[in-house]
Amino acid sequence: MRPTRTVVLLTAGLVTLLGVPAAAAADVPASLYVDKSDADCSDTGVGAQAAPFCTISAAAAIVRPGQTVRIGPGLYEEAVTVDRSGEPGKPITFAGDADRVYDAHLTKALTLSGAGHVVVRGLNATGGVKVVRSADVELDRLEVSRGRLEALVIGEGSTDVRVRRSMLRGGVRIEGGSRGSVLSRNIIFDGERSPLSAVDAPGTIVTNNTFSGYCDATVAVGGASAGSGLFNNLLYTESTSARCRSAAPRAGISVAQSAAEGTRADYNLITGSSALTAAYSWSAAAYANPAALSAATGQGAHDILTPSAEGVGQTADSPTTDSADATAPGVIPTDFSGNPTSDDPGAPNTGKDGGYLDRGAEETHDHLSQVWMGIDQPWAPAGTAVTVDAGSDSRWPQAMTYRADFGDGSAPVPLQRTAAGQPKATHVYASPCSCTVKVTGTNSGGVAFSAEKAAKVTPAGPLTAAFTADPLLPTSDNPIGYTRPLTLRVSTAASATPWPVQNTEIDYGDGTVDRSASTITDHTYGAPGEYKVAVTVRDTQGAVSTATRNVKVDYARSGYVATEPFRLLDTRTAGTTLQGGSPMGVTLPVGISVPDHVLSGSMAAAVLNVTVTGATEDTHLSVWPSGQPRPATSNVNVKMGGTSSNTVTVPVGADGKVSAQLNSGKAALVVDFVGYYQPGIGQRFSPIAPTRLADTRTSGGALGGGQTRTVKVAGVNGIPADATAVAFNLTGTGSTENAHVIAYPDPAKRPATSNLNLEPGKDRSNQAIVPVGPNGTITLYTNTGSTHLVLDAVGWYGKDGKALFTPTVPRRLADTRTTGKLAPGATTTVAGLPEGAVGAALNVTATDSTGPGFLTAYGYGTTRPDASSLNTRPGDTVPNHVTTPVGDGGRVSVWNSHGGSTHVITDLLGWFTQG
After folding, report:
1. How far, CA to CA in Å, does 445 sit from each of 207, 363, 368, 397?
2. Between the CA of residue 719 and those of 319, 504, 564, what are the distances in Å?
């Protein structure tokens, strides 16, 4: 239904009578924002913080009562006119920086015209400020200048304009019938005219300002300005400027006859009497000093006149200090810089009624900025009296008061001064706590600063040493911040220490004693084992307590990190020779030790391909962690003049090296780095029964010299497509020349390494761990001649692998030379692996073989696979790195083929466990 005209008019009338709905009023934001530096600013918006106005004028045009215009930093090159009004109790506020940084800079005039209930705060206005026909205006903390013109003009009948805590360069003029203007705590100076001129401005109050005048009267009240007041001001009379616009006589205070009625002056200080014609010009009469003025008019009875500015102001013993009238009209609670009124204890309170307000814009204060404290017993058992003392950087320390909160829920207490003047308080803690003691110091002006210190309140009782000792394991592959294997973290935090610990000594049981250990201390052992660790604690009261414990130190379970193989050492190019009986240190790429190959600084065990060549006699090579005794094991066996290689898995020594030693003779040593194990990172391993991946005798034919062959190793035969590395036994047979074979991941990046060394008429095998290359493949290469190759996979690494590796110092598990040869077709059982092991890394050696054949290692109690782990040869000692599943009871079976009887030696390099 269409509304009638009567309904429309009635509705309009109700809106006029009742106003807008309450919801609309509630939508008015408390603040408008101006920020020209904001890329999203716009004068067509609503002045939100996210999209502020670009100009102050845009905000001034729409601001409503109770709103604050918050002005961001920047140069605002605009003239701003404020002609809108707030309401009583709901002023319109324009706010720049509140801390006198004055980052909001207005370069042209700021005019308040016909405005009321307005506050302007924290602006730099270099175009001057003008207030006309306005009422209830507050100008606070402004910095104002206007070239050679007055910085501030109040006129045209304005009322109740308050100017506070502002820097006004260029003087102030109040005129045009303006009433009730109040200037408080401002710094005002002018080099061309009177810094303050009030003409036809009745009831002007000028209180606690600092003026610097070079011309005319420093403060001039003229015209119809009756009922004005000048109180507590500091007037510096400077030497007369050549730029003065008038040649009028110099005076400190000038009050015209037309303004004298009801005008009062007192507690002012005028300096520079030598530059003055008279200190006062009052009602057309000149007075040389306050006494003369007081005798004639009753004014200025407490004014002070000094011959110069020396010793006046913010200096010791200044006559301005504590000498003003705190009851004068226009007094405000803080000074130009925001400091409260302060009582200088070194100055007599000569102000009215014994008050201590200072004259001028700035209050003398103690410059308090810091409080400090001390605790005589910051660590003590409950029931001990604890005393705190305090101090500060106040210039008036005797005026400081302090309170201490001991942090245990008890009520704060005042610190009392001792006979020596030191503030102190004593407290007895009833129960143990880790409490924070807070002391607050307050000066006479109410400014407060605090200091805090920790108080450790312990249970009462005897000193009792206790400690925990746990392996410290790495969490990343950081090459710099590393954790060496066999590192133990000892914590003595569990010790009962009622008094401060003077010294903690830790004997690690390996000959190392730390005589100044901290609460948490790390120690790296040179070798695994069981060590007796002793912790001795001494306290400041002379008590001593010792705790001991046997601690087992061993290598931790680790994941595998596959790397592209690279050559680490070749003594043939280094110009050195491996001498029998003398260990050679091999620096591993631990952290940044090998510049071209920066790897983790925390690797626990390395996987290497070790080749011995050019031996001067039949011999064998042992590899073990440096810094540890040489084990009774071997890794590579070589005949005189021959070349032999083997994969070696070995823990890293505490110095980041491994040791390699020939049993006898001389030879060259070649070491290729394949990968490493480390706790906290890397891939898990899944062992599998030996599974044939490739055999060139049945597929593809022999590999020719200089040729490559790609073999699929992932995504086949139970090895997942996302495996990151594959472990396999690589066998060369039917070689036509002495040659070597390289197995590597990327066909485009063949490394200068080797995995297998070939010799005509001899089957050779070596285990390899190779990262998986493109499309789940690896690449094989031989340098010369031709050879058949057989690949039997023994396991894979990847995110879905099931076991982690625990390295160990090589140790012998079995040796048939002490029990009798393994006959053809017979099986020997190797025991001694940890219960729960699902796989093992072994070094298996066949020696004194009576015929060619091969050995197969597999999990005890499982079906023997149709694959080989190493090839036996009459007259040769043949080692091979063997990774195999482990059967029940931590046992491995080794089967000898039908080629001939042989001795079998089995050394343990590490084992795999799930979980």
Report:
1. 20, 10, 10, 13
2. 96, 54, 20
Cα dihedral 642, 647, 649, 655 sign: positive
The residues, any chain, with a CB within 8 Å of residue 158's CB and separated by 6 or more, are 131, 132, 133, 134, 135, 137, 176, 178, 179, 181
Non-local (6+) Cβ contacts of 674 within 8 A are: 563, 565, 607, 608, 609, 647, 768, 769, 770
Q: What's the whole-number mean pLDDT along residues 856-880?
A: 93
Q: What percent of the chain has pLDDT over 90?
A: 89
- The pTM score is 0.66
Tokens 């089967």 locate to 895
- SS3 state at 893: strand
Q: Which two structure tokens, joined as six digits, stand for 704?
A: 């020719």
- Model confidence pLDDT, tens digit, residues 504-539: 999 999 999 999 999 999 999 999 999 999 999 999
pLDDT digits (tens, 9 = 90+) for 337-346: 999 999 999 8
On the CB side of 418, CA atoms within 13 Å amount to: 11
* Mean per-residue pLDDT, 902-914: 96
User: In angstroms, what CA-CA distances link 334 with 91, 101, 212, 400?
Assistant: 21, 18, 21, 19
Distance in angstroms (rounded) separating the CA atoms of residues 518 and 772: 47
Contacts of 739 (CB under 8 A, 6+ apart): 705, 757, 758, 782, 783, 784, 785, 787
Bridge partners of 552, per DSSP, are 530
Per-residue pLDDT of 193-223, as tens digits, reads 999 999 999 999 999 999 999 999 999 999 9
The amino acid occupying position 342 is S
CB atoms within 10 A of CB 299: 21
CA distance 805 to 761: 37
Q: How far apart are CA 459 and CA 42, in angstroms?
A: 65
DSSP 600-611: -TT--EEEEEEE
Contact 153, 133 (CB under 8 A): no
* C-beta separation of 853 from 902 below 8 A: yes
Strand ranges (E), 393-475: 401-405, 413-414, 416-417, 423-428, 433-442, 448-458, 468-471
Which residue intervals of 570-668 are DSSP H helices?
A: 571-574
Three-state helix/strand/coil letters over 100-156: CCCCEEECCCEEEECCEEEEEECCEECCCEEEECCEEEEEECCEEEECECCCEEEEC
The reported pLDDT for the residue numbered 274 is 77
Contacts of 346 (CB under 8 A, 6+ apart): 316, 396
